[in-house]
Design a protein that fits this description.
By secondary structure, the protein is of the alpha/beta class. It is built from 7 helices and 6 strands, in the order βααβαβαβααββα. It has one domain: Undecaprenyl pyrophosphate synthetase, CATH 3.40.1180.
Amino acid sequence: MNENNSCKHIAIIMDGNGRWAKKRGMPRTFGHKKGAENVINITRAMKESGVKYLTLYAFSTENWKRTEDEVMALMNLLREYLDKEFKEIMENDVRLLFIGEKEMLSPDIQEKISELEEKSKNNKSLTLCVALSYGSRQEILSAVKKIARDAINGDIKIDNISMETIEQSLYTKDIPDPDILIRTSGEQRISNYLLWQLAYTELFFTNTLWPDFNKEELTDIIQQFNNRERRYGKN
Ligand code: FPP
């Protein structure tokens, strides 16, 4: 894969697992299983490509409205993924971060994710940020409440509230904004994902369903991004 110097952070909306399964006459949960396997392939490819941050939309606040069976299957996949893959995550020097309304998750998952964040916190090759029970409007709302509380308590003056104050109050305070957003499966929407952080991000939409999205397509997108950068950013 081509070494790339300019793209630090890729965010992905992994869409199309259900349609992938339906096309094969299989239940939606089979599509999610294949989707989870592809998370592993794409994380490996990201590390090879030199990208430093990967943010994946694994479960949105809206996803809680899916059937109980589907929500349970997704949560079980997450448990399985975290247990099975953590060894490889550590061996590959990957730092795990989780963003979202963590308090909505079941206590065992909350415990597991804080344990994995803590154990991997000094890893440097790639930061894998998993958006779980995540909604961008909810994130902004919670930032507004925090800043309002700080203002009432006298910790910040209203005139001193800046873009940076807002950025530092978001779940993503420790990571740079995405350079590239990829959404698979042909939908061209942002779906309440990183609304603040995507302000200057280059957007890429592909018809490929998430379980079929591969390293070649990822490389091609990074290449297109590098061309767009040369054209608009560097002359
Ligand atoms: C969209 O497919 C995908 C999701 C609801 C979430 C993504 C989940 C995974 C890739 C599974 C692995 C997750 C973890 C955390 C290990 P869809 O069901 O909306 O597909 P459809 O639009 O074709 O119905």
